[in-house]
Amino acid sequence: MPNAIDKSSQLVTDFAGYSTLHGFHFVLGLHAPIRRLLWLCLILSCVSFLVVQLVLSYQKLSAHRHVLDRDVVPSKSLTFPAFTLCNINMMKRSMIDGTDAQLYLDKLDPVKASQVVNKTLSSSFDLKKAVLEYGHTASEMIKLCTWNGKICSYKNFTTSFSYTYGLCHTFNLGDNEEELLNSTSNQRDLGLILMIDINDDEYYGPISYLSTGIKVVVHDQKEHPMVDEFGDDVMPGFTTSIKIKREKFHRLKHPYSSACGSKKLVTSNEYVRSICILECNTREMIKKRGCRLLGMPNLPEFNTTGYCNPSEIISDVVTPRASNCDCPLPCEEI
């Protein structure tokens, strides 16, 4: 038995002598006890430090943090963004006098609502048709248009709808397979130059009390403009310049904090977050009130859904917001 113990002790001593772990042979070798204890403390301290570093590194790795990497890539040519403008007045005063369109605006007006509380809109009233007929068209508003030093016109604009402002007009949308415009210079004179007539003498309704002018949004062609939420005000009587820059975002999927993703949409073949939010809020509005706001899509799942009347809009308007919608950030976005 003693021979076995001596043999095992010798094997451990030999292992320590051949080990590449620095200082290990001083712990098990035939050295003074104090020296062996000192080396043992040093080795244990190093091992403890190593374990701590491993744990911290693992925690950092499992947290899936990402580093913001930003590069500036020069380019001789960039796709010019879409530019959407809306007159903040929904319908013209001279054209709606005595019509259901005037009654519609009066019922939305806190000042006049009490005066028309007993009046009702006719069942044949079509808000979209009224806005198309009485709203501020691109041909009336756009008095001068130049792009890249060349003349353009209202025909280069595509009309859409806003539930607050009525008609909106977008330049360089690229619909109907039209080729998108490219910008090759940052000079002011080679961008988009517009002279707008807002017809402020035609203003009528609750919005007209607040201000006059237009709402504008610069956005990617794939995006829904969301003028009602993010539009910038441009006042009449001034020259307004808008300087823009193009940024492209690449995000990481789950489990990283950006948690980008996509989902199938009804009104778009490609995932776009603003359109996802619009569809989500349209569903919420229809399920809650049985109607939709002007500019909201007519989703096939609900068949044909009419527009909300003024009382429904005032009592429970649902504006597009992302908090209640399952619309992840896209992994690639401009």
TrEMBL record:
Lineage: Eukaryota, Metazoa, Cnidaria, Anthozoa, Hexacorallia
Entry similarity comment: Belongs to the amiloride-sensitive sodium channel (TC 1.A.6) family.
Location, primary (coarse class): membrane
Molecular-function GO terms, alphabetical: ligand-gated sodium channel activity
Signal peptide: none
Source species: Exaiptasia diaphana (Tropical sea anemone)
One cellular-component annotation, GO: plasma membrane
A Pfam family per the record: ASC
Protein name: Uncharacterized protein
Keywords: Ion channel, Ion transport, Membrane, Sodium, Sodium channel, Sodium transport, Transmembrane, Transmembrane helix, Transport
InterPro entries linked: ENaC
